[in-house]
Amino acid sequence: MPIAExxxxxxxxxxxxxxTGPVVVFLHGIGSNASSFLxxxxxxxxxxxxxxxxxxxxxxxxxxxxxxxxxxxxAAALSGLFDRLQLSDVTLVGHSLGTLIGAxxxxxxxxxxxxxxxxxxxxxxxxxxxxxxxxxxxxxxxELELQGPDAFAAERAPRLVFEPRLNLDIVAQxxxxxSQVERGGYAQAVRMLASGDLLALMAQVHLETTFIIGINxxxxxxxxxxxxxxxxxxxxxxxxxxxxxxxxxxxxxLQKPQDFAAALALAESAxxxxxxxxxxxxxxxxx
Length: 287
Prior knowledge:
It is built from 11 helices and 8 strands. It has helices at residues 38-41, 71-85, 97-108, 135-156, 168-178, 183-195, 198-202, 222-236, 252-255, 257-269, 273-279; strands at 5-9, 12-17, 23-27, 49-53, 90-95, 113-119, 209-214, 241-245.
């Protein structure tokens, strides 16, 4: 029996593992897709209904209409999927670029969520749509065009994994997902990242939010997630829950799926955000 079934709704493809328990929706990062969460699914409660979307322009999902979309455009596409699947009381989990989408959705639709979980936060560069892409951001599009998806993935994948030479299976999983990126969808996502401003979005999120960090992350260093957590804390007048996972790089949910699953469970059952933070030694406080 497959871990999850591939489905399509309104031009969005997604993977779903049916369940009668809590609903969890996963938002992948810029170089990934829905399938990257399948290994994590095996560590989550068997009754949970798990859904991982392919963002617009990824994995067969239709791209967005705007050449330079913003986070709210992806959030609108996600809202449409929620409508069609009649989802409510959802735990929304965003990773990397998915944190911008998750925060934009939570700011606009808090009534549809039970809580928000953000991992390996991509804070964005606050470039106005149509502006000049930062050099390191614009090069992503150029390198994908020049190298092609396979070579592009082979070069970048090891950076997402802690001690890649000792974790070749994890590197292979990252590389496989990254090699499936589509040029048009990737270019849209790069521009969205350039315009993103996660800290401003977090100031608008008043839903209970928990943060997860792979402390060996070289792509979105720990401080970025701590800054996002601090922005949420200032807006809500309390300290957020923060889980720091050791010996994990950017692909934290692939490298440490059991720890990541435990962090999701703790986020669901924690009585207070402060209690969750203290248990995991959190500090107060780009893709």
